[in-house]
Fold these 3 entries.
Entry 1:
Amino acid sequence: MCKFGAVENNVQITNSIAEGFSQITDMHPVPVDPDRLIAIAQKWGTPTYIYLEKLIRERCRKLINLFPDLPVSWLYAIKANDNPHLMDIIADEGLGFDTVSYEEVLLCRKIGAEPHHIFYTENNMTDAEMKGAVEQQVILNIGSLSRLEAFCDTFPGSSCSIRIKPDIGDGHHAKVDTGNEDSKFGIRLDQLSEAIAYAEKNRVAIKGIHAHIGSGIREPENLLYEINVLLDLARLFNDLEFINFGGGIPIPYRSDEPDFDLNRFAELASGRLKTFIGEEGRPIRFLFEPGRWIVGPAGILLTQINTVKDQGRKTFLGTDTGFNHLLRPALYDAYHGVVNISAPSDAETRVYDVAGNICESGDILATDREMSESKTGDYLAILDAGAYGMTMASLYNRRALPAEILITGKGFHKAIRQRKTPEQTVDEFLQDTGYSQKK
Ligand SMILES: Cc1ncc(COP(=O)(O)O)c(C=O)c1O
């Protein structure tokens, strides 16, 4: 096993079995044959994120075909997962990119995305970032009145989009509800006339309006409500070319959770969009910018059990990963299915907590889970980890980041991020701090 081994690209695992959703272990369907995951773990080591190209492509196509007779385009919110190899796949399927920082803008540009395919929703942007975005010629979406004024003063005669606070929010957790009345995001509804007047005075064309109500929306009605809010506001904007309804399409994390009914949502939304187009008489495009829905189910975090620890009331499976690699359980109390892929399918079950190796008592990845009887050395697959996994990872406790492996559409395994050794991780840190190593 090459725990810290070299990366080797395009190696086909010979004992792989056909991919599919048929494997049910511990109640959670694993989207790859467990034998194949174990082969990857043995070859590349753990912790490792694994992504499935085929599934990402299928999901992109589902979205692209969702509104066949409407001018709808899709942007992928790269904050969910910005591995450039995944971004290439998604761009190849015809999606543009939604970005939320100047660094994300640069990343998109450097992987070859055209400026008009990059939507940049700023958030407390600096003047330098604003100038950078204008130089990059991306679509700049401005989220506060004061920033819009600064933009108009600096770039009179230009154009932009604005983010509106629709006063309706949703999300899988209060921390990701972005549209409610108290949200820090977007321009207030009662400030819109002032915003429009300021833009007009400076001949700035507001070509787009945008809102994003939250991530992991629980009630489709809230998204439909937001769509209505933006459609109603559209008439205020003379130069309008597009309306961006944001992202937030949820995925089920629990095996008994119903999936978001995309087709039903599209049906309801289509009716409203078609009526709007009929009434408007000007060519206005519609955008959505999901992240999680595209990559979430297509990612697995593979980890190994280092310790099985009976603490009296609880038995912990101690792993070689933690909230430094998958923050969602610690930050949002989020649930991820965890499957012991080493255990035989007819194994006895026991109740465990799955713990990380970070020195914090909050470093628990799963609580009170009935799982196959587990032992040191077994591999666990943490499911639905493709979104907000690696992008939220940190070097806390000075631990190295996971490797990332893509199972390509042709069935090859490709390393798309190399694991650093502990020595490399520490050396890079010392180098970044400008500290001269003593040993
Ligand atoms: C502005 C914006 N757009 C899009 C997204 C993507 O959300 P999701 O991954 O839930 O689709 C987010 C995430 O919170 C966001 O902040």
Note: Residues 77, 79-80, 98, 100, 121, 176, 178, 212, 215-216, 246-249, 289-293, 387 surround pyridoxal-5'-phosphate (CB under 6 Å).
Entry 2:
Amino acid sequence: MNIKNYAFETGIYRPPSEGGSASLLLRFTRNCPWNHCTFCTMYKTKKFQLRPLREIKGDIDAMAMLARDLKSTSIALGHGGKITRDSAITLMEKVPELNNHDGFPMLAHWLMVQGKTAFIQDGNSMIMKTPDLLEALNHLRTTFPSINRVTTYARARTLVQKSSRNLVSIRKAGLDRLHLGLETGDDKLLKAIKKGVTSEGQIQGGRKAMEAGFQVSEYWMPGLGGREMTRAHAENTARVLNAVNPHYIRSRPFRAIAGTPLHARIKAGEVHILSPGEQLAELKQMITALEVTSRVCFDHAGNNWRNPRGRILFTHDYEGYKFPEEKTRVLDLIEEGLESTTPPVSFIHL
Ligand code: SF4
């Protein structure tokens, strides 16, 4: 038992649906290779790096070694190999450096809940060379055969650039789900936020991923275009999502973060931020135009609209609402929310 054998990296970001120790976090690349989006702070001060394959495989091996030592500690404690808090604490007593290991709590908790899923960090793993990604996935799947789902973040533009053949081989190597930041389907807004992709690129990338057999999870941001672009944002986001028909559509209401270029534009009066009621009115417009068979989700704390009784409007469940069956229900909930957050009349008639 030696801390040197346990060295592996863990990044910060993962979607909420992969959090709470539900997923093993593996860092295949560092930071974001695009890094220009004007609303985003995630990796802003950090440079993108592809990690060498040997490092990635070394991380997987270190995780496996730590898992094995936790298991043997559990057996020695008489817990039959089941990883418990006691096994983690006992191992930390034997190897005190584990107290300062960023990834140890994540790995130990993941094993405690018999973790079945894995999330590959950071911002766009699909940018890896296909042979490297295939080998890393194969190594992960053979080292941890109990994993039944592997997911990652991806950019639509990168998916357009990858061949369909490569996408299919990556899917077959065990990458199951892609989380895509659509943000908006409106071309003017995509340009304004420097997303680096057009709506056509968003459609092509999303469709290619669907055709290759991935589960596709698209994230959009109610309120991103402010009052100036709300109608086009809602209409074109629905248009792109209708064209892709992804498995999941996830709402991430826009919040301006100080220090971002978009925040500066808002401060300068160039973009007028939506009130919660105005965001709901935009949501109503987008949802009304949606013709999909997706699950529509509000699985983030930012979806905090309330009904007149003060209760959170939408479930934050990761599986959300099944469309088209529950579309009317979602629209009814929006109406309830609008009763308690009446948008300005001028906005409704835009
Ligand atoms: S691609 Fe994603 S992580 Fe990268 S800058 Fe844009 S929003 Fe941020």
Note: Residues 1-152 form one domain.
Entry 3:
Amino acid sequence: MFDKEVRLPNPQTSTALGQLLNNRVSTKEYHGPEDLDEQTISDLLWAAFGKNKKGTRTIPTALNQKELGVFLVSDKGAWRYNGEENTLSKVSDEDILPYISEQDYVKEASLHFIYTGSNREYSPLHAGSAYQNVYLAAEEKGLNSVVRAYIDKEGLKKP
Ligand SMILES: Cc1cc2nc3c(=O)[nH]c(=O)nc-3n(C[C@H](O)[C@H](O)[C@H](O)COP(=O)(O)O)c2cc1C
């Protein structure tokens, strides 16, 4: 198809997707939690793992098992996102932010998503697809975002 080495045409960064990808960056400075409106929260969750018009999800999943948990977390508690129904169900009234805020800047962010799964091989891949979608959806809305693995996973497991 190609010779051994070839310079490719410049990427087309002027398209809607090209601009989002071109601007994608992890932000580690936030300036205090703000209340985001429900539409914004819905759009971000939908990007992560919502149902699309093809009847599938915004991300592919291994064996089409849709094996990914997505939780919304704020200082008011935690909610599980149901992408099939586009609903949120409260799963905790507790402020679990201390378990996910080991880095100081995190406390200043407006909301947090937690991705869970039980498939050692595939769940991290599904989470990767979801958080990349969230980066792009956030960028489109002029919001900052960062994915983080540095959280207290054992603490979160406590009832
Ligand atoms: C799987 C994964 C885990 C990450 N965990 C953390 C984290 O715990 N804390 C943090 O501040 N950044 C975390 N990051 C963000 C990276 O530091 C960031 O993506 C990297 O510095 C590259 O910057 P960029 O995203 O702007 O290209 C993580 C990124 C990935 C992909």
Note: The beta strands are 69-74, 77-82, 87-92, 112-116.
